[in-house]
Amino acid sequence: MVNQSVLKLAAEEIAQANLLVVLSGAGISKESGVPTFRDAQDGLWSRYDPQELATPAAFRRNPDLVWSWYMYRANLVSSAAPNPGHFALAELETVIPKIVILTQNVDGLHEQAGSNDIIELHGRLGRWKCFANCRGTPTVIDLAQIEYDAEHAPKCPYCTDRLRPDVVWFGEQLPTNALDRALEVAQQCDVMLVVGTSGVVEPAASLPQIARSAEAKVIEVNPEPSMITADANFFLQGKSGEILPALVEAVRAQA
Ligand code: OAD
Prior knowledge:
SIR2/SIRT2 'Small Domain', elongated, six-stranded parallel beta sheet, alpha/beta
């Protein structure tokens, strides 16, 4: 059970914020049936090796394996729906002046829930691009326009290279525009709400510290302490699908 007095104090901070930045991770989508990466029992990286599936070198070694894994994940996510945590964040836009969501998630569920200003730091499942970005970064290809199957990485229609998912892999840079805007709003925000991330993957993991250094309050929602917890002003322990609706209700009561 979340500590009600901490919840109320966190709600007071949010109610007074002109700019709230949310940093979300895989945990916010867990209650939508989308697996996280590092949960010991059912996290993706406990069952699959990221070095075989989520690096440019892995794709070069075995493009069909990587292609079929991302096809499988894209299918899984296409049938997932936002949960009360995503909806609570979308509703919060009607209560406070400005919210920007920085998400490490590639599932599109914040958008489906109705949030308006979302920066996708790690790309998007179900969007595909040329590995060589032969027509500019990114060279996004609409699969409806080409022939392909779920087991073989198809060729780019413009060059000889293959198509890959438009997500950020280990060892790759984040999309420049997304990262620049994330750094900017992290420095400008009054409150950063960090939800469902282990805080181990850079540069996203450093955004809460950047916000703290710029005098923002950091509020964390997570069932378990994370690498962010020591830097948080308020730690709301529990599932985001339960805590976020309660938090938004408490913010409404302040406003
Ligand atoms: P992780 O899998 O590392 O962490 C998930 C976090 O969600 C953990 O801290 C859990 O305690 C928490 N969690 C679990 N259930 C939750 C719930 N119901 N409500 C709220 N939180 C819950 O996922 P990320 O931190 O998002 O990168 O991982 C960061 C990046 O690592 C991902 O974007 C991905 C991965 O490799 C790329 O694919 C580039």
